[in-house]
Structure formats: C-alpha cells, structure tokens
Fold each of these.
Amino acid sequence: MERRKFLKSATAGTVAAAATTALAAPAIAQSAPKVSWRLTSSFPKSLDTIYGASEVMAKAVSEATDGNFQIQVFAAGELVPGLQAADAVTNGTLEMCHTAPYYYVGKDPTFAFATAVPFGLNARQQNAWFYHGGGMDLLNEFFAKHNIYSMPGGNTGTQMGGWFRKEIKTVADMSGLKMRIGGLAGRVLTKLGAVPQQIAGGDIYPALEKGTIDAAEWVGPFDDEKLGFYKVAPHYYYPGWWEGGASLHFFINKAKWAELPKNYQSILATAAAMANGDMQAKYDARNPAALKRLVQAGAQLHPYPAEVMDAAYKASNELYAEISKDNADFKKVHDAMMAFRGDQYLWWQIAEFGYDAYMIRARSRG
Ligand code: CA
C-alpha cells in the first residue's frame, strides 16, 4: 500500500472509531453508575486468610468496573461487632457483610447449614451442594426471611478438632470438660457431658492458660499457630468433625442487591466465587508448613478415638431430629443436605479416597 493511501485509510479508521466511541459513551455511562457500599467483616485483620477474602472480592469488583463500584471493607468492631454483622445487613445499616452464618444459630439453627454442621459436608462437597445441588436456592429462600441474599465467600477446608490440656481417650473423658466451641457442635458436646463455652478469639489463650477452660477449638494449623494454644494445651486433635468444610458467606441486603444493575450483580457474583476458591487455596497452601512448625514447637497430634467420634455422630443425629420436630426450615435444609451427603460419599469412596489413600501411603514410604 502507498504511504499516502495507507495514512488516509488509517485516518478514516480512527475517525470511525472515534465516532463509535462518541455514540457508545452515554450507554456505557448508564450501565456503570457510581456505587459505594460498605462491608463489615466478622473477623479481625490479623486473620488474613479469612478477613482477606473480603478484600480480594472488593478489589476484583473495583477493577472490573473501572472503580465505579466500590465496596469498602471494615474489620470486625470498626462499624459493628463481629457477631452482629448479619443484623447490620438485615436492617440495611450496611449493604454487605462477610461472616460465618453459623454464628447466628441463636436466631435460627438453620443458619448453620451455610457454614458447617457436625458430620456435614467437606469443602468440595459443600461447594457442589451450594452451586449445583440446590443448596444456595434453599438457603436463600430461608435467608430472604432475614432480608439477606447470600453467596459463598470462602472455605477453611476440614478444621482441626481443638487443643486439649489433657488427652482424651474415652467418651468419659469428655464429662465436665469445659471447651470453647460454638454453634450446634456445642449442643452435641453437651450430650456427651462436656460444657461448651462461647469465648472470643483473643480471650481463648488466657482462659486455657489459667485453666478456666480445658480445651478450645479454633480453625486449623495456620490460624491456630497465631494464637499460641500449643504452649498451654499441647494435645491437638483431629478431625474437626463439626466443621468438615466450614464455609464463609457474603451476606447482601436483599433490597440493595435488587437495586444493583444486572452487570454489577454479575461482577459481584463472579468476584465472590473467585474469593471463595481463593481462600481455600490459601489455607491448603499454608497449613502444611504451619503444622510442621506446631509439631516442632511441641504440639502433640492425636486422632479422636473412634468411640468419641461414634458417640458424637449419634448425638448429632439425635440433635437434628429434635430440632427438625418444630423447625420446618431446619428440617427442609437438613434433609436436602444429608441426602446430598449420602450420594457424595457413595462417589467419594471410589476415586477421591482411593487416590488420596494411595498417595498418603506412598509419601510415607518415601
Ligand atoms: Ca472452628
């Protein structure tokens, strides 16, 4: 092409592109309004994996909207206390929160299914149920009664079963044991004779040190290490049978969600799903090194005795039957999740378990 002709056609192209931009600009402006939301986390900044999910989500939303949709993240206590995050969303004080729904079992035990229930699902199964097993539809039907629209926002994976000052060998050793543990798991432990305690994260260590409590559960190696429990309660049990795959959620005020333009709804849902997977990846990447450091520092690992697991499993089923008798929402979600669990383990015992079990043996052989 001649230089002159080329320049001419290039100029024409530029003019055409400019015209298109000029025509399209008003439409783009309409679909990208300035929206500014506030989110309270139920967690302190020191729990960087859990707290971090809100920042990961908010950054993705901001970047995808050229900064037009801003979600400002506040740590627990900055705007509202961590355990009142859901209330702030229900009453519309805040547009959004990031929380563990099982904190609200006092309002209704049905909340627990969004996080974890004793002998519930593992993290993979939990997400399968939420996204493709009807779980979120059922939960959002329930959450709507609290003006909440929810989407999963992270998972810790299977948690550890807590730190004990003394070894647990039989169910009888649970009798009178004062343990920091929340939600439905506390009610299960009551059936085994233990005395559950609700204690905020920062207060657990001194309570264990003084012997005000005998045991405490928190999350897993990466988070537990920061709180230093191994120094005062060295017996570290597994698995955390009450949190096979504890899920966090983003709660959004229902009316605020409905007001969002469709493209912002899509961007927010995409960012939340990304943050959901990102948190699990962080825990999986960081837990092994933390576990090694804990064991080097004196933590003693123990599996829960089979008789304790069996007694807890039985007590959990009794509790579910009791609550289901006069709570139709609980029964509906419980029955759906447990049916899903049955099919999941039918599948899980084949390839997943077969592969993991082989690889664990192969690793220990070296
Ligand atoms: Ca826990």
Note: The two ends are 67 Å apart (CA to CA).
Amino acid sequence: MEKLYFCTMLMESDKHITGPIGVFDSGYGGLTILRDMRLLLPQYDYLYLGDNARAPYGNRSFELVYRFTLESVEALFDRGCRLVILACNTASAKALRSIQQRDLPMIDPTRRVLGIIRPTVEKLGELSHSHHVGIMGTRGTISSRSYEIETAKLHPSFTVTGHACPMWVPLVENGEAYSDGADYFIKKEIDALISGDPEIDALILACTHYPLLLDKIKRYTPPHISIVTQGEIIAHSLEDYLHRHPEIDSRCSRSGRVEYLTTESAGRFSDMASLFMGEPAQASHIEPGKKTHTTLCPTI
Ligand code: DGL
C-alpha cells in the first residue's frame, strides 16, 4: 500500500517533467514516419529507436514481437519519453493492445503508446473510389488481419485484400533497395495482389519500410492505382492527438532536436539516417532487451 502511494506521488510530481516523443520501429522503416513528423511538427524533440539487431520482426511470433516491442518502449520511457509512437505496423498489430491494456497501467498510466494502423484506416474513405483497397505488409501484419478488422468497423462497404511481402523488409535492412535483384520481388508481389482483386484502386504500403522501395513499387503498379504511404497520415494524426490531449502535449519537450538509438551498429545507422533524413544524424548504440515489466518506481 505504502509503495503504491509513493509511486502515485512520484507519477504526480513527474507530470510536469517533459521529454522527447519516442518513435519506435524494428529498424530503419520508422524513419519514413519520423521524417514527416519532423516536417509537420518540427518544434518537438524526438528520440528514435530502431531495433535493427532483431529486425525483421515481420516473420516472428506474436510473443517475440510483443516482448521486443515492450522492451523497446521501456527503453524509450527510461530515456524520458512520455509518449511513444509505434512507427511499425507489425508491432502495432501484435503488441499495441497488450501494452496499452496490460502493461501501461503497471508501468505508468500517465504515459501513452500509440500505433499507426487505426489512423491509416481512418483515412481509407478519402483514398479509394472503388472501395477496393490493397494492403501490403509483413506476414505478421497481414496474418493479424488488423487492417480488415479496423476497416470493417469504420468502412463496412470496403473490400480489403491483404498481401504479405516477406522479402521486402530484408531488401531494405540489407541495403538492397536499389539493386536490380529487388525488382523481381517487387513486381512479383504487386502482380499477385492485383490478380487477387483487379478492382483495387488504392494500395496501402502498410509497412513503414516500404516507402524506401517506392521508386520500384511505382514502376510496377498500374497508374490508375494510387499508392498510399503512411508518413503524412501519421504526422497529421499525431498533430490532432496532441491538440486533443493538452495534458500529453504539455509533457513533450520542444527544442527541435532529434536523437537516434539503434541496437545494431551506430555507424551504419548514422549513415542510413543521415541519407534518409537529409541532415547529419549521429546514432548511439544500446543493448537490446534489457528488461520487461519494470515499474518506473524504485523498489521500496
Ligand atoms: N517496418 C515494420 C512494419 O511497419 C516492420 C518490418 C519488419 O521488421 O519486418 O511492419
């Protein structure tokens, strides 16, 4: 009882401390979300974490994706983040609900973790005229059927066809995005998706790594199909969320800084992030997976 009271007091006093917005992905993919957040909301500080040492997540079990994601969220919390965005569809599909409902109340109910599937589905009404939408993602995202479930709630007249592209993330994580070999896998999956539903007029890239393959995806997608990436959608959704939640907004620090953490090589991450963000980026290495289910209160 005493411990609980002390924790509550700590959380109360903690309410006035600010910290960066945490952005998490299994690897480089979340940079495609961070870039648009920075463009729209440059005043905030951001702390990005790529779990490159354990990427890709796409073919991993529910339990592993959940554990890796929770560990990463805790690493961002430990470094001062009050709000963490899972800039990863696979983590949003497999870990978000458990973290929000089971872990956050124990860790710190005043902090927030948000995903990227719901805000993307909210936009579908504006993106398709035929009401036939194609979703390309990792095996984890597609087999979770998260997009179908959310779409059925918000746009019941829509037909959603999901298609997994298990080779696309490894192409990005291994620096093969621009190689000739990538063309084969990109064309193959787009052809398979469209043959599954020829009425599709909007193709959602429901994996944050896929915009890094955008030039080639455009090359093999028929011109009447619009290709939708998530960066702008998520940035606008974050702006709206912070507007509606001033108690969270006031806990996000604002000096326009970005810092990068990776569980793999800091040098390689810095090169990729600098290239992609169009500004010098200096990443730091952290060890993956130190702890789970810690409360942020000291043990008494
Ligand atoms: N970028 C992630 C996503 O949006 C996951 C990629 C992976 O690690 O397989 O799903």
Note: The radius of gyration is 19 Å.
